[in-house]
């Protein structure tokens, strides 16, 4: 080959190299892409307009995409994506067993060494830790608090004060029933879950003494036939006369509509209802914690670990995902999330300024009362029959007046005894 031919080849290779470099440069500088799987499809605007832009101010090189699935489809859709290898990099985690199962299958990365985990107390990590507490697999995001939301205008018109004890609570309900056209207690039993979630798990912690009672149930030292559980259903059995005509056919959305239309006085609530009522109610509303049994000085609230976020073990963007998780563990995310979604309370140790007055009221109970979580969520609903589902069923029957409170305790205890050794 002559020298001129060699020079021509070198010249062509040099040009091709330059062209390749030119086309490769944008790819090498492209932002990493992180996809978040979530069931909170109603949060998309907040993530896209508030949370992700705030993160990108510090990390413009990481492109975050919020990709939600409707809540009812989330578990099955996520399982299918994980099996197919198409799931996002970050997985929004339900509390306890659902996410624990994903971790045991190898779908979620262990996060013990994630620096941001140091910002969370042990109780916040319980919902996303192994039973022994050795490994944590999701970053805690937020909890929800149970209590009662009330129409301040109705209370003012009737000269009512916020009840603090069980006796005061039923006196207020009786007053509303006798002296007004309003439904005293707005809740239905058609969807079942409200009976357990906003009934049993709402007022119950005051009777079984929060975490001590929950731990005793897990260890087998306490039974659901014990007085502290039967008394909860006895309390709930007195709700029926105050729940309005046809409450047995009333669904969750019906209850929300009834309250926001100003036709009901008190709504057994989760703090997640605040946003709905802010958007729809045209009256001022407030909140009060579950009434305590007469003579009891210590109050207990259900401050339930509700939502976390984990790292897909198959993600190809683990470094960027950890960067995002560490940012989520910081004070900026806590402040943004709490004020963008009133009623969802950060679990990190940061001091957060809550702007919404009703959310602030819910949060203030942490300083007044002992906190616990729903007692059916850790360990006790793994077998058949499922304790959570049993609580739905018996609580509905108690509210409907078709089951005696003592029989409710016997039925759930019998179900637990069928598969759970500490109760055998």
How many E-type strands? 10
Number of helices: 18
Describe the sheet with the most strands.
Answer: 10 strands, mixed
pLDDT average, as an integer? 92
Shape: globular
**Series of secondary-structure elements, N-terminal to C-terminal:** HEHEHEHHEHHEHHHHHEHEEHHEHEHH
CATH superfamily assignment of the largest domain?
Periplasmic binding protein-like II
Q: CATH class of the largest domain, please? A: Alpha Beta
Structure class: alpha/beta
CATH architecture of the largest domain: 3-Layer(aba) Sandwich
Report the β-strand fraction as a percent range: 5-15%
Topology record:
Elements: H1 3-28, E1 32-38, H2 44-58, E2 62-68, H3 71-84, E3 90-93, H4 97-104, H5 122-125, E4 139-151, H6 152-158, H7 166-179, E5 183-185, H8 193-203, H9 205-208, H10 210-219, H11 227-237, H12 252-260, E6 264-270, H13 273-280, E7 285-288, E8 300-311, H14 318-328, H15 331-340, E9 345-346, H16 357-368, E10 370-372, H17 387-400, H18 405-417
Parallel strand pairs: 1-2, 1-3, 5-6, 8-10
Antiparallel strand pairs: 3-8, 4-6, 4-7, 4-8, 4-9
Helix pairs in contact: 2-15, 8-17, 11-17, 11-18, 12-13, 17-18
Give descriptors for this structure.
424 residues; alpha/beta; D-Maltodextrin-Binding Protein, domain 2; 2 domains; 10-stranded mixed beta sheet; 47% helix; 15% strand
The gist of it:
Helices cover 47% and strands 15% of the residues. By secondary structure, it is of the alpha/beta class.
Q: Can you put this structure into words, describing what you see?
A:
Helix content is 47%, strand content 15%. With 424 residues, the chain is α/β, with parallel strands linked by helices. The chain folds into 2 domains: 32-143 and 305-368, Periplasmic binding protein-like II (D-Maltodextrin-Binding Protein, domain 2, 3-Layer(aba) Sandwich); 144-303 and 373-423, D-Maltodextrin-Binding Protein, domain 2 (3-Layer(aba) Sandwich). It is globular, with a radius of gyration of 26 Å.
């Amino acid at each position: 080959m002559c020298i001129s031919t060699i020079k021509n080849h070198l010249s062509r290779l040099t040009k091709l190299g330059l062209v390749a470099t030119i086309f490769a440069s944008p790819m090498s500088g492209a932002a990493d892409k992180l996809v978040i799987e979530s069931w909170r499809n109603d949060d998309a605007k907040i993530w896209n307009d508030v949370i992700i832009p705030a993160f990108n101010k510090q990390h413009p090189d990481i492109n975050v995409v919020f990709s939600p699935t409707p809540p009812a489809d989330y578990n099955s859709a996520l399982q299918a994506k994980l099996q197919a290898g198409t799931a996002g990099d970050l997985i929004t985690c339900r509390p306890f067993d659902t996410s624990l199962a994903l971790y045991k299958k190898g779908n979620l990365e262990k996060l013990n060494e994630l620096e941001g985990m140091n910002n969370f107390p042990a109780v916040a990590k319980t919902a996303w830790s192994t039973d022994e507490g050795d490994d944590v697999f999701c970053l805690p995001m937020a909890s929800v608090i149970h209590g009662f939301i009330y129409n301040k205008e109705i209370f003012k018109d009737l000269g009512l004060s916020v009840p603090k004890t069980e006796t005061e609570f039923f006196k207020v309900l009786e007053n509303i029933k006798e002296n007004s056209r309003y439904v005293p207690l707005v809740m239905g039993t058609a969807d079942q879950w409200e009976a357990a979630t906003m009934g049993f798990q709402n007022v119950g912690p005051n009777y079984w003494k929060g975490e001590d009672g929950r731990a005793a149930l897990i260890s087998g030292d306490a039974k659901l036939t014990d007085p502290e559980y039967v008394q909860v259903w006895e309390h709930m059995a007195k709700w029926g006369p105050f729940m309005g005509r046809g409450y047995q056919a009333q669904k969750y959305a019906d209850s929300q509509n009834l309250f926001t239309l100003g036709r009901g006085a008190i709504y057994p609530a989760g703090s997640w209802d605040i946003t709905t009522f802010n958007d729809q109610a045209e009256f001022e509303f407030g909140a009060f914690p579950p009434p305590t049994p007469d003579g009891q000085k210590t109050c207990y609230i259900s401050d339930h670990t509700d939502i976390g976020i984990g790292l897909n073990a198959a993600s190809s963007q683990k470094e960027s995902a950890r960067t995002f998780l560490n940012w989520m563990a910081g004070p900026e995310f806590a402040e943004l999330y709490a004020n963008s979604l009133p009623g969802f309370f950060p679990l990190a140790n940061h001091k957060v300024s809550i702007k919404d007055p009703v959310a602030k009221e819910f949060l203030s109970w942490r300083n007044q009362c002992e906190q616990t979580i729903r007692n059916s969520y850790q360990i006790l609903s793994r077998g058949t029959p499922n304790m959570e589902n049993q609580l739905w069923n018996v609580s509905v029957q108690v509210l409907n007046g078709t089951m005696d409170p003592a029989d409710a305790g016997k039925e759930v205890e019998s179900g637990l005894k069928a598969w759970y050794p500490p109760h055998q």
